[in-house]
């Protein structure tokens, strides 16, 4: 299958970065290539002034109400009237960043992307343009956590209780969510809030879900992630590690699933990320400023066209967007059948070991990313070229920092790859 991504050779990767090899003519080819645990129920009494109340059932009551068909139609109309986002297929250059994003959409278990680069290089624009390409998933209708009706591990407490009672769950299809986490967000807005007064007076754990609930089974995007407050970083670390968010207030505890693809972007000049947060990102993409004058003119002209008439501009890329959507859908369905030879697995682990990569996340992510790339190219077997394409992005940010080392960490990974795989 013809593809800009598929035609990347190991020699080309060693000689120059991916972001320097794309022209406007390559964009169409990119489009063408590319036993159950139900948890605990909430029972018990709440004591007031030292007196114990009689035992009663305390249900988790969400402030978010079910969305009626009329409300859905209203939201669809409002979305239609919103200013359209820039099409993903119209992004010129930055192949490395685009490839990392596509692989995470195909296999969310890769663990997200950290995008670092110069300001004004289209990082936020590219991430937000991903919204149009996100596939649909099956969710429980009206559930604020986007619970999967077929996976008890990603269900909210109410849905699990309904299953225990043998109730029939209403199911619908919806697009994967992309949630923006603003730098000024409070911890309550991120994690959710509990209405203490209602809990004490009515005996109900009234919980209003936050951004982590909305991002469950979706994407959580943090722009300028290196400027995020430390206490919010700790919240993200805890949720990313466990897949659950727990809110504790005045002796009341609420837990809900919070499994999301974490995408962050930032400018390295504004500060480095804490190592423990950096390690949570499955892949790391470096973005550079385009130096070719003609390509820069093309980018400026395309942006001017979009600003002048966004709907007309999006219409001109509609066919390419649909092809890319179909390709992502095919790759997601094809992914379980993709195999990687034992010999290649051993060599990947040998590269990680010889680079002194801490932990095993590097091994796991490299295997997953290589399989996702093979699925994107329509193959059922991983090749060394697939591994060469993704391994710098999977290991670059996991290497120990050496202040005396002048060579780029991505080139160190490539050199070790050739040494082991040759």
TrEMBL record:
| GO cellular component entries | chloroplast stroma; magnesium chelatase complex
- GO MF annotation terms: ATP binding; ATP hydrolysis activity; magnesium chelatase activity
Domain of life, per the record?
Eukaryota
Q: Where is the AAA+ ATPase domain?
A: 109-291
Q: What's the main place this protein lives? A: plastid
| Compartmental location | Plastid, Chloroplast
Write down the EC number.
6.6.1.1
Q: Name one Pfam family in it.
A: AAA_lid_2
Keyword list, A-Z: ATP-binding, Chlorophyll biosynthesis, Chloroplast, Ligase, Nucleotide-binding, Photosynthesis, Plastid
Q: Specify whether Methyltransferase is a keyword of the entry.
A: no
Q: Where are the transmembrane segments?
A: none
Modulation of this protein's activity? Redox regulation; active in reducing conditions, inactive in oxidizing conditions.
| Top class in the EC scheme | ligase
Q: Which reaction does it catalyse?
A: protoporphyrin IX + Mg(2+) + ATP + H2O = Mg-protoporphyrin IX + ADP + phosphate + 3 H(+)
Q: Does the keyword Plastid apply?
A: yes
UniProt-listed InterPro entries = AAA+_ATPase, CHLI-like, ChlI/MoxR_AAA_lid, Mg_chelatase_ATPase-isu, Mg_chelatse_chII-like_cat_dom, P-loop_NTPase
Family assignment? Belongs to the Mg-chelatase subunits D/I family.
Quaternary structure, per UniProt, is: The magnesium chelatase complex is a heterotrimer consisting of subunits CHLI, CHLD, AND CHLH.
Under which name does UniProt file this protein? Mg-protoporphyrin IX chelatase
Organism annotation:
Prunus avium (Cherry)
Q: What is the lineage of its organism?
A: Eukaryota, Viridiplantae, Streptophyta, Embryophyta, Tracheophyta
Q: Which gene encodes it?
A: LOC110754854
């Amino acid at each position: 299958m013809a593809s800009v991504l598929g035609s990347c050779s190991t020699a080309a990767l060693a000689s120059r970065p991916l972001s320097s090899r794309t022209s406007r003519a390559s964009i169409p080819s990119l489009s063408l290539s590319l036993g159950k645990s139900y948890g605990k129920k909430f029972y018990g009494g709440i004591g007031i002034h030292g007196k114990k109340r009689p035992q009663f059932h305390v249900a988790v009551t969400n402030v978010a109400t079910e969305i009626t068909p009329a409300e859905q139609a209203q939201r669809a109309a409002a979305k239609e009237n919103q200013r359209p986002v820039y099409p993903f297929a119209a992004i010129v250059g930055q192949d490395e960043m685009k490839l990392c994003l596509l692989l995470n959409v195909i296999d969310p278990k890769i663990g997200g992307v950290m995008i670092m680069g110069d300001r004004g290089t289209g990082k936020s624009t590219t991430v937000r343009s991903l919204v149009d390409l996100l596939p649909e998933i099956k969710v429980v209708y009206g559930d604020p956590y986007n619970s999967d009706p077929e996976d008890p591990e990603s269900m909210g407490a109410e849905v699990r209780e309904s299953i225990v009672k043998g109730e029939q769950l209403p199911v619908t299809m919806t697009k994967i969510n992309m949630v923006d986490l603003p730098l000024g967000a409070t911890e309550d807005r991120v994690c959710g809030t509990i209405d203490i007064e209602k809990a004490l007076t009515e005996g109900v754990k009234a919980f209003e879900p936050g951004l982590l609930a909305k991002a469950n089974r979706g994407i959580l995007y943090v722009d300028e992630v290196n400027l995020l407050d430390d206490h919010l970083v700790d919240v993200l670390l805890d949720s990313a590690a466990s897949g659950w968010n727990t809110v504790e207030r005045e002796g009341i505890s609420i837990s809900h699933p919070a499994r999301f693809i974490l995408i962050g972007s930032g400018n390295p000049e504004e500060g480095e990320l804490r190592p423990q947060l950096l390690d949570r990102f499955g892949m790391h993409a470096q973005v550079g400023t385009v130096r070719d004058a003609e390509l820069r003119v093309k980018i400026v002209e395309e942006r001017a066209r979009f600003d002048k008439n966004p709907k007309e501009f999006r219409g001109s890329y509609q066919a390419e967007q649909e092809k890319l959507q179909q390709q992502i859908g095919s790759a997601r369905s094809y992914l379980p059948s993709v195999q990687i030879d034992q010999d290649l697995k051993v060599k990947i682990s040998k590269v990680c070991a010889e680079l002194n990569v801490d932990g095993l996340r590097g091994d796991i992510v490299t295997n997953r990313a290589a399989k996702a790339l093979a699925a994107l190219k329509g193959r059922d077997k991983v090749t060394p070229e697939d591994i060469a394409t993704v391994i710098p992005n999977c290991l670059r940010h996991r290497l120990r920092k050496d202040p005396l080392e002048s060579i780029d960490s991505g080139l160190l990974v490539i050199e070790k790859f050739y040494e082991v795989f040759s």
